[in-house]
Each structure stands twice: as C-alpha cells, then as structure tokens.
Amino acid sequence: MAIIGNWINGDMLEELAKEEERGDIGILVMTWDQTLETAHHEGFFSLRLTRLFRSTAMRFSKTTGAAFKWLVLDDGLLMVIRMARSEWAAERDEALTRLLFELRETAVQVFSAGKRTRKLRGKDRICGGAALIRRQDEGTDGHSAAGDRDVDLLSALLRAWRMAVTSSPCSFEIFECRKQAVRWSRERIGVRYAPIVSMQDGSLFAYEALPFNKATAEVWTPEQFFSVSEWEGELFDNDRYFREQAILAAPSGSTPVKLFVPVPAWIVFEPKLHPGDTLSKMEAAGLRPEQVVLTLVDNGTDHPGTLVAALRHYRMQGFRIALSAVGTDREAIERLIALKPDYARIKGDWIPKETRDPVGESLLQAVTSLARKEKIVLFADGLQRKEQIRPLISAGVGYGLGPWIGDSAEKPPPLDPVVTDRIRQEIRRKFRGTSGSLAELVEPVHTFSSRTPVSEIARQFETHRESHVFVIVENGQPVGLVMREKLHRMLASQFGLPLYGNRPVAKIMETQPLVADQKTPIDQLSQAAMMREPDKLYDSVIVTDAGKVKGIVSIRALLEWVTNVRMADAQWANPLTGLPGNEPIRRELSRRLDEGRPFSVIYADLDHFKGYNDRYGFHRGDDVIRFTGETLQSVVKDYCPDNSFVGHIGGDDFIVIMDSGNPVKISEDILVLFEKGISSFIDGTHGPVADRSGMLLENTGVSISLALLLCQNTDGWTPDTLAERAALLKKKAKSRSGNSLEWDMLDYQEDQAERQA
Questions:
Q1: In this predicted structure, what is the pLDDT of residue 33?
Q2: Of 129, 157, 340, 361, which sits 20 to 30 A from 708 (CA to CA)?
Q3: pLDDT digit string (tens) for 553-608?
C-alpha cells in the first residue's frame, strides 16, 4: 500500500511496529528535488549516496548505541532509528537533530559533486524532518492496542514527512506515542498569580505567573514544571501554552502592573522557537514589552553560555529580564555581575533569620550595595513573616513576594491593605525625623489626557521648550508620564512618527511612574528614586496633594537638595568619631519632644580621661574616644537599629537617643562591653593613671558613667532642661568608682513641684 508516493509498503509498516515494541524510535524523512539526480551518471547516486548514508548512520550508532534501518528512493530518504530509553530527553533530541543535519549535508555534498551538477538554489532544495515515538511505560496502562499503535506510527511518519516538505531544513518535532496523554497534559496546566509588593511605598508592583497543576491542585515551582515537561518531551509546547495562558489572563488597564513570567533558559535552542511569538500574544492582550519581565530559569546543568544566549535573545525583542534564585555562594554572585539582568530574585538565605541578626543584615546590605552599583533591581522571595520587612527596607531591597505578601490565585488578587500599612509604617519609622519637605522642590507641570495623540504631545513639547516632562492624568489623578527625551528618541526611529503619531499617548507613556505625596520626606523619596530600573533613574517624580497632581520634582533638584543637606551635616560632624555634633543633636532632641512620644536619652561621660591623656598621650586618648563611640553604636544597633541616634557632644561626652524599648538593659550592656574593651588600651610601660587631684588609680583608671533619662511625659521639656537633669544624674554616677549607671524617669509636673518645694 502506498502512503507517500511509493516509499512505504506493508512490510515497512510491520518493521516499524516491531521496532516500536522494543523501545523509542525516531523517524527521519529527507526529501530532495528529483531533477538533482538527473545531473549524475547512472548508478552514481545509489552507490555513493548509500555508502555515505551508511557511514553516517554507523557513526551515530557507535556513539549512541542505537540500531537503524533505512530506505533510499529517487526523491528521498526514510530512516528508522531505535534508541534506548533515556531520562535525558534533551540529549536524545539533540542527537537526532544532529543526525538529520549530517545526513542532509551528506546529500548536499553528493549533489554538488561532478561537473554537470546544477548549482543548488538554497536550502529549500534538500529538506528534512523528524518525529520521535516513545514506547509507553509498562506498569501504567500497558502497551497500546495494535490499532492505536498503527495510528501512532502513521501519524509520526506523516508528521515527519510534512515537516520535510513544508518546513525549513532540519526542523525537529517530538511526537508522543500516546496522544491522549499529551492532550491531558495540556488540560492539567493552569496559571496562578502571586502579588509582588513595592518596598518603596507599599503599593502593588507586579504579579508573578506560576504554573499550576490542575490534576493535583498544587502550584508547581517553575523548575519542577519545566523539568517534568522536558522529561515528557513536551517542553516547547508546554512552555508556549503556559506563556499564552499567563499573558491572556494578565491584568491590564490604564495603570497596569508588570507581569513576571518564568521561561526556561535552554528553550532558546529549540528549533521551533521563533522570535515574536510571545510579542504577538502580548499585543493581542494589550501589553507592551516593557510591562512583561521574563524570569530566566536555569536547570543547573546547562552550559554557562545558555543564560547569556537566552538573555540576548529576549532583550533584542524588548523584554526586561530577571534572574531567578540568586544564592549566597560566590558563583551565584559572579554570575549576577556577569549577566547584569534588569531584576534579580534573592533567595530566603539572604533575609536575616532572626529579629536581631547583625551578620544577616550585613550580608543583605552587601548584596544590595552590589546590585545598586551594577544597576540591578532586587526583589526578595519567600517572605513568611511581617518581621522580615524591616531589614529589607533598611537595606534598600526594592520589592518582595511570598506567603505573607499574598498567596497565589487563579485571578490576580488585590494586595492586602494590612501589607501596605505595615510597609508604610516601617518606611515612616526609618525616615522619621528627616528634614525637608517636597513642597520646597515642587515645580509646575503641564498635564494632558491619556487620549491626547502622540503627535500633539510632541507639538506641545516644541511649544513649551522649558518643559522636559508632561504628566498624563485622568480626573486630575496621575496615570502616566512622558519624558521629552524618550519621546523624541522614539519618534526619531525608523517609521517612528507614522507608527505612533496618531495613537493616543496612553500607548507609549510610562504607566508606572514614581508618585509621592507632598508630605513625603525628601530622604525617603531620594532612596525610592534611586531604587528604580536603570532606564527610569532620571525620570521626574510626580508630586500629589490629596491624590491630585501638584507638580513634579526633577532628579537634579532632588540630588542637589540631598547633597546640600549632607554637606551641612558634615560640617557639624565630629572629625574624630564622625558622629553628629551639637546642632544635629539639638534638632533630634527637639523633634522627639515635639512628637510627644516616649523616648530615652543616655548621656555618657568618661571618668579620669585627662589623667589617661597625660600618661599615654593624645594619640592613645583619641583611640579611647573612638572606641567609646563605636561601643555605643554597636550596642544600640543590636537593640534598635532603625530609630536611634548616637551623637558626640564633644571631648569625652556622648549622647544616645532612642525609642523606649529596654533602655536599662541597653545601658547595662554598654557598661559590660566598655569594661571588656578598655583594658586593651592599658599597658604596664606607662604606669598607673592619676585623677585630677594626683591620686593614683587602680586597674585601668578610665571608666564610663551613664545617666539615663526615661522621657515618658515630654510636655514642658526642652533640650536645655533635659541637659540640666542629665547633669545631676551624671554627677551621682561619677561619684561612684568604676563604671556606673544612674537613671530616672521624667515627669514634668513632678519636677516642677520639686523645684517649687
């Protein structure tokens, strides 16, 4: 019986069936133009081509252990290869693709030989295709029935032949023996969306699409999903199906959030992958390339060049790229620096395990500083508790996700208000007391509707040459931003003006600009601005009042203000310890008193420091001063790192201002740490230290006296009255020998009554 021309007969079909029962088989089909053969002498084709085909097949059999049969006809080649079952589907697929390529090159060499051969007119003259039939595992459903088996064999043969005559050369496709299992595999793939929150203002930043197993009602990790798909030989089809479903159900609107979609990095070597497939699905869903972030998933066994090839492939299409699961090992850090993705997901190992974890916080600060230097935006994965938010905000991590942020759902879930409130609370805590208001920096800005044509926006920029930014609004609320430089660059590209000129500005505007209320501290805003993606670093910030646009703040004005403030603070900093001096101390005390919340103040004074200076010299005395400042900072940082202040009043006098917490315990720890460390500054070559009266002192001679004020009721108090009360406590502490602590609880009414008495 003829299936394709006169290639296949009943005997060949029987051979195929026998091979299928023994193991996996690959069917390779190659076709060529019959007129090519007429250019050769009679017998030349069948003899030389058959020998070369046999040689190529034998090399393949020797390296892979596969058995093969083939049939050569006037216009094509059919080869059947039986292969042992392999758990590495990618290696098997690559071997078959390589064999098809070598067979085609062999045919090209034969047809190109001889003086009378016509010149080949491109690769379409000799084409090939392949299909793989996997034997069904025993112990599940058993072997397929004879009728099903014949259908599978014929379907695979027809598919390989159709690819050979209609597709580009050396196309490759996997065909499963049980088609029903493949259809069920598609039906079990679902999508769940997990929210990603901004650590800058507590708003919803993006959703991450996660594969979902409908059969077991479980969320797959991307690594599990792609690994299972590859093992089943369905990686390309499953990945494409998952991307389509994730994009189609993604949220969109006037202010859409970003969508993070995981993709296997090694998919870029798939012959069926064509650039633009994902972009076409996004365009149909109303999404722009910059709104979708592709998270490259590495299977851990790929060549290092795989990630580089995948990153280059998708960036050329306009996508932003994220790197998944950045670990704490050196290799992971080196890979992060080498690849320079737009985003990087850090594992839970980077997040401090305990409330007070100085080592963990230092590691987090280090990787954040490195990412900022390389212009990589970090987001933390696996947030389980609200206590993990504080170190992330302190370190400057941009975004976060995890069970505490929100569970994944079939439809993109709204962000829990509790999460937003908690993040904003931590931000206010971090920037409490910082000076400066956005009202000082706001500049007026022109606003336009999102329906305004792009050509009109460009004309308005020419009319208002002093403007470098326009804000797009709906009902007075900001929905987008257009920077003049970016718009001109877009319109100056080839076909830029014809393509975008008549479209509404909503199609090209920045849909996620940085928006801040006018009451936002400038320090907070400057950090948020510097945590943005590299291409947004210099975009202006929209300032609002009660949700309505008030104006914009340029990055230049923001940086100038921060620089001036830092220079002013540096003028008041103590040159020996680097700690804030008298003016910053007074501002901090005044702020705390104005807020009216309870706080604590520790005044620290060294005893017998003059005698130490006289005996050891000023250089050693400077070392003791620096040690004292470091001791105070170290203890305070362990207990209240986010809302504390350590200042150097001058000489050997220091001050600590902090939230109430447990100030007595903090003071006691300061005494213990000071006593442990001061002995290293004493040696036997200089003799004992004397006090101001000349009396020789025992032991080290240098001690510290602490005066602790618990300010529970601050009504009526001023920085000066606090200093007076602290001086009385210090006098009591210094009257005792050695390290000492005196503390008192302030109440203005009781103090006034005592003074009047």
A1: 64
A2: 361
A3: 998 888 888 888 778 777 788 889 989 888 888 888 888 888 778 889 999 999 88
| CA–CA gap between residue 80 and residue 7 (Å, rounded) | 13
Query: Residue 232's domain spans which residues?
Result: 187-430
CATH number at residue 577: 3.30.70.270
Q: What is the pTM of this model?
A: 0.62
Q: What is the pLDDT of residues 30-40, one digit of tens each?
A: 777 655 554 44
**How many Å apart are CA 422 and CA 428, to the nearest integer?**
10
455 in the same domain as 549 = yes
Which residues on neighbouring strands pair with residue 544, listed in sequence order? 517, 549
Give residue 261's pLDDT: 94
- The CATH number of residue 112's host domain is 3.30.70
**Strands 653-659 vs 599-607: parallel, antiparallel or unpaired:** antiparallel
The rounded distance, in Å, linking the Cα atoms of 373 and 333 is: 13
Q: Cβ(685)–Cβ(630) under 8 Å?
A: no
Q: How far is CA 169 from CA 117, 127, 457, in A?
A: 21, 4, 48
Lowest mean pLDDT among 3-17, 248-262, 335-349, 405-419: 3-17
Q: In this structure, what DSSP letter does residue 436 have?
A: -
Those residues whose C-beta lies under 8 Å from the C-beta of residue 94, and which sit 6 or more positions away, are none
Domain shared by 109 and 207, yes or no: no
Nearest residue to 602 (alpha-carbon basis) of 631, 573, 574: 631
User: Quick one: pLDDT band at residue 105, thresholds 50, 70, 90?
Assistant: confident
User: Two tokens at 735?
Assistant: 């009257």
Our count of domains for the chain comes to 4
CA-CA distance, 361 to 137, in Å (whole number)? 51
pLDDT digits (tens, 9 = 90+) for 627-662: 999 999 989 888 877 678 899 998 899 999 988 678
> Of 378, 405, 430, which one is at a domain's C-terminal end?
430
Give the whole-angstrom CA distance, residue 250 versus residue 247: 5
Residue 38, classed as helix, strand or coil, is coil
Tokens of 673: 């740490």
Instruction: Please check whether residues 311 and 419 belong to one and the same domain.
Output: yes
Give the residue from 159, 177, 195 where a domain finishes. Answer: 177
CATH number at residue 482: 3.10.580.10
d(CA 479, CA 513): 8
Q: Which residue has the higher pLDDT, 751 or 557?
A: 557
- Asked if residue 566 belongs to a domain, the reply is no
- Count of CB atoms situated within 10 Å of the CB of 748: 14
Whether 92 is in a domain gets the answer yes
Same domain for 170 and 220, yes or no, is no
CA gap 184, 395 in Å, rounded = 46
What CATH number is given to the structural domain containing 285?
A: 3.20.20.450
Query: Are 51 and 121 within one domain?
Result: yes
Same domain, 525 and 391: no
